[in-house]
Amino acid sequence: MKRPLVLLALLAAFLVALPAFVGPYVLSVATLILYFAYTGQAWNVMMGFAGQLSLGHSLYVGVGAYAAGALFYHYGIGPWAGLWVAIALCVAFGLVIGFLAFRFGISGVYFALLTIAFAEFTRIGFDHLAWTGGPGGMFLKVEQRETWDLANFRGPPLMYYYTMLVLAAGAFALCAALMRSRAGYYWQAIRENEEAAQALGIHTFRWKMAAVALSAAMTAVSGVFFAFYYNNLFPEQIFHISRSIEIILGPIIGGLGTLFGPILGAAVLTVLSDGITELLAALGVEIPGIKQVFYGLLLLVVVIFLPHGIWPPIARKLRL
Amino acid sequence: MDASLVANVVAAGVLTGLVYGLMALGLSVIFGVVRVVNFAHGEMMTVAMYAAAALFAAWGLDPFLAMAPVALAFFVFGYLLQAGLINPFITRPEHSQFMLLVAVAIIMVNALLMIFGPDARNVQVDYQLESFEIGPLLLDKARAYAAAAALAGAAALFAFFRFTLTGKAIRACADNWLGAKVVGLNVKRLYALTFGLGAACVAVAGCAMVLLVDVTPPLGPYYTLLAFVIVIVGGLGSMGGALLGGVLIGVSEALAGLFITPSAKSMFSFGLLILVLLLRPQGLLGQRT
Fold first, then answer.
1. Contact call for A104 and B281, based on CB within 8 A
2. Residue B212 within a domain
3. What is the C-alpha to C-alpha distance for residues B275 and A297, in angstroms, rounded to an integer?
4. pTM of structure
5. Which residues of chain B have pLDDT under 50?
6. What is the mean pLDDT of residues A91-118?
7. Can you give the pLDDT at residue A144?
8. Is residue B287 part of a domain?
9. B103 contacts A297? CB cut-off 8 A
10. B229 in a domain, yes or no?
11. B262/A contact by beta carbon, under 8 A
């Protein structure tokens, strides 16, 4: 019990101190890693804990981003108020999908495809929604980058980094607590064998709905961050299925259902992706698509040789 | 609105839908037997389309003649993919299979981008500008031939599963995996054969489709989603359902393009998918398991 805590404290200290030693580029990469770690953690609640495979998590990122973004854009309502609207909307979306799917006994591949269908449906819907700019996108005003304006969530890159660090740490703590809670054990029981869980008296429908709601709410926060970090939103980008895949790569590569998996997976994938870009630039290779081919090949290798992800073997080595 | 215009649009939708149907048939057969969802299906379709376009550009080979070599190459590729990569994954959980095929799909799309660049490719043959006149209907010749080829491909597959011993053996694997093993069938080899056949279906559909639309790498993920929609609407694992689903989606896309706006056409497909999943999750022609 002691070793994990020491390592965790070291990691936390490292991440808090990091901005003092690195330039703006590394800071932006680190922010991205934390973003994916957080979002992956949110997805992991549904898949890693409760065993419900969602391939449409871009839906919640997009709805969260557009909700908070549009309120700010049209009415000047700040992100802190918008956050709650975003969360409420995403939970509503999640509950509708969950209700329809679980009531009708849709699970496994069919559930996964249903989540894709809803995300795509919403993407095309936003493409035709003039209020949010349609396919041309919605642009939030970029201003005062120097000082920390937390009320409007405007500030230097450092502010976004620490925000994401707090979110990722919060999600980690929440998931750690959940894993050892009644809810966590119920979810794991449902994941391992739903019929057995039901026979033991677990109200599986209710607990699956709870997992979807929590996961959607957490992902909504990612969306709000996305809106105010990037300041421009396009349905084609934010709702696209490749965004959903990006979200789930981290936890799966890192280790499904583990606490460190999403963090490690996000770090490995982001560094890998940037590393390949740098390497190809250094070699002077400029062929569109070559980077993604390497990425795909590496993914293939990891999926084939580390079926449970990168984290479990490391955890064993470190005797955690 | 003019009734003959609607009739023409519906007819074109049916013909395109049959090509969609053959593409989806490949996915349906693979899922029905191997129980693995081929997330690289649309990407395979675009590879076939590029292959046909490249053969046409190099030797002026008509896409209908290209069907034979492309289908053969795809059969071998599909067989090896299943035997080498996917067979070890059939006992792994769904998300693991999903990741494997997503990686394959990423490699395919971007390899196409590397080789052919981002510009659209197409083929231009004389009969694309001609049409059959049947009463008030005007059918594009290319579209009619493509649909005929799709029907022929589907019929050949039906016949294979219905009348040959190997086809029967594959159906036995689909019905009862353990039973098939007990009676001495080489299940893994039959799985590879099935994946090869599914890939060959996609190859034929791709060669036909390149006559109807321009091909670009991003078309791959779009076709993957489309194939899912079609097989779920028709019923995963049901061969007739895949064709029926293809026609339904083809017609609904064509009508949505006519009455609303072409960019909203896939919203109808996804709407249809959501409705079917909720009201009849086994699909229109599927059997409840």
1. yes
2. yes
3. 37
4. 0.87
5. none
6. 88
7. 63
8. no
9. yes
10. yes
11. no
Which residue type is seen at A106? I
Q: What residue of B is the nearest CA neighbor of A115?
A: B274
- pLDDT reported for residue B1: 64
Q: Tokens for A149?
A: 């304006």
Q: How many domains does chain B have?
A: 1
- CB-based contact A153:A69 (threshold 8 Å): no
Closest chain A C-alpha to B85 CA, distance in angstroms = 8
Inter-chain residue contact A104 with B107, CB threshold 8 Å: no
Instruction: Show residues of chain A in contact with B261, CB under 8 Å.
Output: 128
pLDDT tens, residue by residue, A120-157: 889 988 988 888 888 888 898 877 667 787 777 888 88
**B102 CB near a chain A CB, below 8 Å?**
yes
Q: How far apart are CA A3 and CA B142, in angstroms?
A: 69
Q: Which residue of B has its CA nearest to A302?
A: B100
With CA atoms as reference, the chain B residue closest to A120 would be B270
Residue A20: its H or E element: none
Domain that holds residue B40: 3-279
Residue contact B95–A53, C-beta within 8 A:
yes
Query: In chain B, what residues touch A105 (CB-CB under 8 Å)?
Result: 281
End-to-end Cα distance, chain A: 8
Tokens describing residue A173: 């703590």
Every domain of chain A and the residues it spans: 2-317
Nearest by Cα to B171 from B17, B5, B25, B33: B33
CATH number where B146 lies: 1.10.3470
Scanning A34-53 for CB atoms below 8 A from B yields 47, 53
Report ipTM (2 d.p.). Answer: 0.83
Q: Does B100 touch chain A (CB under 8 A)?
A: yes
User: Does the beta-carbon distance from B98 to A53 stay under 8 Å?
Assistant: yes
Question: Which pLDDT score, from 0 to 100, does residue A104 have?
Answer: 79
Classify residue A142 as exposed, middle or buried by CB count within 10 Å of its CB (0-12, 13-18, 19+).
exposed
Determine the residue type at A162.
Y
Tell me, yes or no, whether B49 lies in a domain: yes
